[in-house]
Design brief:
There is one protein chain. Helix 2 packs across helix 3, helix 2 runs parallel beside helix 5 and helix 3 crosses helix 5. The protein has about 100 residues and is mostly helical. It has one domain. The longest helix has 20 residues. The N and C termini lie far apart (about 65 Å). This is Cyd operon protein YbgE. Keywords: Membrane, Transmembrane, Transmembrane helix. InterPro entries: Cyd_oper_YbgE (IPR011846). It comes from Acinetobacter variabilis.
Amino acid sequence: MTDAAVEQVKIEKKSNPFAMVISCLLAFPLAAVLLVHPAAMLDANGEYSHRAMMFIMIGISGGFIHGVGFIPQYWFWKWLFSPFLAWPLMLWGYYTWFLS
């Protein structure tokens, strides 16, 4: 009877601290550029690629979420904000930033 009253708490393994630092170091400069000087992300025509900016911002969000150690519960959010997806998107952001 006491088994029904006690919740089973699932303990998840924390992320690698080195990978968390990498996520933060990739996310902070991109977020700063987008907030302080967004014109640095313009393409050759002087316009924003809204599709690219959406994906880059998802990557930045994933970098911050992983970097601070937050672990989402739902599988979709775990996948969307994982470093496996966030890092390539942030690298795309750096490519866009330095290409323009």
